[in-house]
Amino acid sequence: METNTVFCTIIPPHVLDKLAQAEDPATFEPARRTLEHDALQRTRRRITTVRGMAPPTGAPSDKPNRTIYDAGTQETLPGSKVHSESDTPSQDATVNRAHAGLGATFELYLKAYGRHSIDDSGLPLDATVHYGEKYDNAFWNGEQMVFGDGDGELFLDFTIPVDVIGHELTHGVTQYTANLEYFGQSGALNESLSDVFGSLIKQYALGQSADQADWLIGAGLLGPRIHGEALRSMKAPGTAYDDPQLGKDPQPAAMDDFVRTSRDNGGVHINSGIPNHAFYLAATALGGNAWERAGKIWYATLTGGELASDAQFADFGRLTVATARSLYGDGDELQAVTKAWGQVGVPLT
Questions:
Q1: Quick one: residue 148, left, alpha or beta (phi over 0 = left, psi -120 to 50 = alpha)?
Q2: Exposure winner among 233, 255, 270, 271, fewest CB in 10 A?
Q3: Among 37, 83, 99, 168, the one annotated catalytic
Q4: Nearest residue to 147 via CA among 118, 162, 192
């Protein structure tokens, strides 16, 4: 399978760039170290391809197969194996959170959409914790999850928010399905789909309806020195944080405020606010559990085989409308999805 060799992190480069310019070493040193690390990883991803996974034998299981490794603050993957699927809970809370987050992701995809793990063939879920020294990020590298511990001041342990785990693993689902290019609008769709399903994984795990959910990505991740509540808000893009060190959340909620930039692969973490907001509007208009009707429409659009790897927002919007009609006819679902794209200014004709 030919896949785009992208390196996807939860903390966007524009946030780390801002922190790296700070005067306080406690702020700029972890940010600069993280930026250097991530730049190296991106280069490696460009010159290597995702290794083909061994084909599964027999039918994939309805149970996850999770293994957690400990990097011991080094940057060698996967690290020492510290927890297997059948083990009792660890003494290390980070290991337990990683194990639980992998499980919550597996559960949502299986129970809501009938998908067996990331590749739909029972892919084992591996994760490495305690990666790097004060490493301010988490990422999916095409094969496994990797979590930094954060620096404790700006960012806390990256296993804390379950939606961060779900976000990164969904990059794997996209990799195995539509394989959206990681640049411009298709890259922002790639990021948005990870936010959508990351949020749905959190809502499913907590048993929250669309109205009960906070629609925040990464709540609980920001450290005590930061003025903000999360990395992103799907409900109100641009309001997640406003901090002297991080800057102000730059996400737009509609196409009128679309950000044109050459940084961050054409603003993939910024303009994802637009399709994020469209999903929020559709899901809350429908009410009930967002992973059901709205989630099924987005999932079927991602995995249905018609979404081109270079799809733009309008392409994705039109496909969600067609999917809503094919799944549910000309009812509330079609109306909610059509109206949501109109509200964020994405043309469907």
A1: beta
A2: 255
A3: 168
A4: 162
Pair 190, 172: CB distance under 8 Å: no
Bridge-based pairing of strands 125-129 and 145-147 is: parallel
In the residue annotation, 23 being an active-site residue is answered as no
Q: Choosing from 171, 269, 277, 333, which is the catalytic residue?
A: 269
The tokens 């054409």 sit on which residue? 266
The pLDDT, as a whole number, for residue 59 is: 78
- How sure is the predictor about 165, in pLDDT bands with cuts at 50, 70 and 90? very high
DSSP assignment of 141-165: -SS-EEE----SSSB--TTS-HHHH
The number of residues in the chain equals 349
Q: Do residues 283 and 290 make contact, with C-beta atoms less than 8 angstroms apart?
A: yes
Helices 332-343 and 293-303 cross at an angle (nearest 10°) of 70
Asked if 171 is an active-site residue, the reply is no
User: Which tens digit of pLDDT belongs to each residue from 244-301?
Assistant: 999 999 999 999 999 999 989 999 999 999 999 999 999 999 999 999 999 999 999 9
Q: What is the pTM for the complete model shown? A: 0.94
d(CA 253, CA 275): 8
**Exposure pattern of 214-242 as b/e (b: 16+ CB <10 Å)?**
bbbbbbebbeebbebbbbbbbbbbbbbbe
| 55-103 residue pLDDT tens | 445 678 999 999 999 999 999 999 999 999 999 999 999 999 999 999 9
Q: State how far the Cα of 175 lies from the Cα of 346, in Å rounded to an integer.
A: 25
Question: Does residue 320 sit in helix, strand or coil?
Answer: helix
pLDDT tens digit sequence for 192-230: 999 999 999 999 999 999 999 999 999 999 999 899 999
Residue 315's CB: how many other CB atoms inside 10 A?
Answer: 18
